[in-house]
Amino acid sequence: MLQKVPEPIEVRYLQTPPKLSDPVRSLRNMVDIVRATGSPAASLTALMHASSAYQGEYASILDGYTVTPAYIEAHPTFAAMTGDEVLGFYALLEEPPELDILFVADAAQGLGLGSRLVAHMLAEARARDIPAVRVVSHPPALPFYLRMGARHTGTIPPKPRRSRGRARNSGSKWRSRYSLEND
């Protein structure tokens, strides 16, 4: 079950948004960011594994990674929805503060949904008195996070890590580390 977030979401672009056709602009206006509950776990996992960003060289990073109903219940997880379709999502770990996952469907890339999800995540962090959020992602995401205001704080060598009691396979690739800070 998904619940609508009652407060309005302000979208701020740190650069000029791309010129979009009217149908695409209309689609962007029809997207709601809602709190996910356990039921869409399979849809979130499918969207994550379908991402072209993690195909080929970076595919091993997501090997065996699934979003479960228990994970969604344990961590603030929000989905960008249009009707019943999930276009993107993120999950925020509260202790220590980390953007654990953020994905936008390939077909929805370029609509500003990633920017909206990051802005929403920072608002959620602010509401929880979290001053900064750590982000660890694959290196090709560096330009996106820098546009979102992140500071590149380092690079993490490949190794499996544990997160909230479950093993997470980081694959055999180096990952970049960033910090997103609330104003």
What does this structure look like?
The chain is of the alpha+beta class and 183 residues long. It is built from five helices and ten strands, in the order E-H-E-H-H-E-E-E-H-E-H-E-E-E-E. The longest helix is centred in the middle third of the chain and has 15 residues, at 113-127. The chain starts with a strand and ends with a strand. The relative contact order is 0.17.
Keywords, separated by commas or semicolons:
183 residues, alpha+beta, 8-stranded mixed sheet, two-stranded antiparallel ribbon, 5 helices, 10 strands, 31% strand, disordered N terminus
| Total DSSP helices | 5
Strand content of the residues, in percent? Answer: 25-35%
Largest sheet: spatial strand order: 1-2-3-4-5-6-10-7
* N- and C-termini, Cα separation: 32 Å
Overall radius of gyration = 16 Å
Number of strands: 10
Catalogue the unreliable spans: 1-25, 160-172
What can be said about the biggest beta sheet?
8 strands, mixed
Helical residue percent band: 10-25%
Order of helices and strands: EHEHHEEEHEHEEEE
Mean pLDDT: 76
Shape: globular
Structural class of the helix and strand makeup?
Answer: alpha+beta
Topology:
Blueprint: E1 2-4, H1 22-29, E2 32-36, H2 41-50, H3 69-74, E3 77-82, E4 85-94, E5 97-104, H4 113-127, E6 132-137, H5 142-147, E7 151-156, E8 161-163, E9 166-168, E10 175-181
Task: Give a nutshell description of this structure.
This protein is α+β, with helices and mostly antiparallel strands and 183 residues long. It has helices spanning 22-29, 41-50, 69-74, 113-127, 142-147, and strands spanning 2-4, 32-36, 77-82, 85-94, 97-104, 132-137, 151-156, 161-163, 166-168, 175-181.
